Amino acid sequence: MESFILGIMTVQTSTFESLQAGIQTKQFTLGVVGLGYVGLPLVFEFVSSGIPVVGFDVNQSKIDQLSQGASYIQDISNDQVQRCNASGLFTPTTDFSILKTVDVISICVPTPLRKTKDPDMSFVVSAAKSIAAHVRKGQLVILESTTYPGTTEELLQPMFEAKGFTIGEDLFLAFSPERVDPGNTTYTTKNTPKVVGGVTQKCTTLACSTYAHAIDTTVPVSSPRTAELVKLYENTFRSVNIAMANEMALIANKLGIDVWEMIDAAGTKPFGFMPFYPGPGLGGHCIPIDPSYLSWKMKSFNYDARFIGLAEQINTSMPSHVVKTVGIALNNQKKAINGARILILGVAYKANINDVRESPALDIIKQLSTLGAAITYNDDFIPNIQLSKTDSMASTPLNTVEIQAFDCVVMVTQHSYYNITDIVNQASLVVDTRNATKGIASPNIYKI
Ligand code: SAJ
Known about the structure:
This protein folds into 2 domains: about 1-220, 3-Layer(aba) Sandwich (Rossmann fold), CATH 3.40.50; about 240-445, NAD(P)-binding Rossmann-like Domain (Rossmann fold). The protein is built from 13 helices and 17 strands. It has helices at about 15-25, 40-50, 60-65, 80-85, 120-135, 150-160, 200-210, 225-255, 260-265, 290-300, 305-330, 360-370, 420-425, and strands at about 1-5, 10-15, 30-35, 55, 90-95, 105, 140-145, 170-175, 195-200, 220, 340-345, 375-380, 385, 390-395, 410, 430, 445. An 8-stranded mixed sheet has the order 5-4-3-6-7-8-9-10, with helices on both faces. It has a 5-stranded parallel sheet with strand order 12-11-15-16-17, covered by helices on one side. Strands 1-2 form a two-stranded antiparallel ribbon. Helix 13 (about 420-425) links the parallel strand 15 (about 410) and strand 16 (about 430). Helix 1 runs parallel beside helix 7, helix 5 (about 120-135) packs parallel to helix 6 and helix 8 packs across helix 10 (about 290-300). The longest helix is centred in the middle third of the chain and has 32 residues, at about 225-255. The site of ligand SAJ has 20 residues, from helix 8. Ligand SAJ binds next to helix 8.
């Protein structure tokens, strides 16, 4: 509790009031731990709002690139980094001892899965330990990394309390899920509503006041675990509905129905329906991963999150369904996968981005190679792919291949640069996993 003499009266201001006043008057510094696709856009929004930001990362090469005005994130340009540097408000560093000088700390580190499908909390724990080593009275710490409900209160809070702090009195703690959609130019960090759940109401208030400077809308909720579950529900919603669309593809296939035509027609319903589409499988670092954080947590309650498990089962079966479709298509031309020359178009996990994490294309390539096919791939966004510790492939420029020389072309990710009509006209066979050939009639086109 601070106090100062005002005339004949001693006015006492609490730690909360001091921090709140600093935040409300933009007299505070933000620290962002983790300068990736979440942290760096956050840095940019706050610096653009005139707030000093210290960016922390363990990767010295990232700090060097930023210091030299270079970006390594698709959604942040070099010019934006240079503007941050020119403002004098941005300090990229690997020196975590500087954490004691900032007022608000946002943790934006990865939360991947281990090979055992269990959450890998090592990045969060490492960041939290670095913060705990330097944290001081009067700071606000906000975890943004997608994680299981309970992380903030069960993992982070005890680490800070062990240092003698009382959360909500002399140190403040909240969770606020990142909602960055890489490549989305419509919805950005600034205009995507920010859900905020503090350990106490004061924590929530401070976190909302912080984000209000750089983000258009804040959405306070009653606890960190509520905010943690909000994010997991959002992405489980997608995983389950995509799995439903994938199962509709399998059902429509057996019924001799074009699933894409069917979904487009269903999509004309103006209420109570939201179209999702089948595909070659579920890629990305969010949708295939996040639901597993929830199902893993629920095991500790001896509860089986069945929709999550079923969606994962269906979504992960889609690459095999694509391979089966390739086999049927070749067989109908009296060919086998074994020995076939196959061209894979698009390996990124979704169109027009340069991210291949969890991409189903990798699984499709591995399965076809195991069955004896000779694989070539093109993806101008992904120059190389690592299929195993020892096996990698390079993208082949489309203008250097003769499409007609391949026994089958598989459209896995429909980047905008593909001329579908041209591809169909040249190809002996096309297996289309994205309805890229919509409106093109040919006996040589097989859709999943
Ligand atoms: N996919 C389908 N069918 C669909 C939609 C997607 O097969 O109908 C596939 C995609 O090809 C991709 C995977 O699912 O392989 C995930 O696609 P996604 O559109 O969900 O894109 P992501 O993984 O980039 O998800 C992000 C998420 N953003 C955050 O977590 C902050 C997600 O919450 C967004 O809703 C999503 O972007 C979005 O809407 O673009």
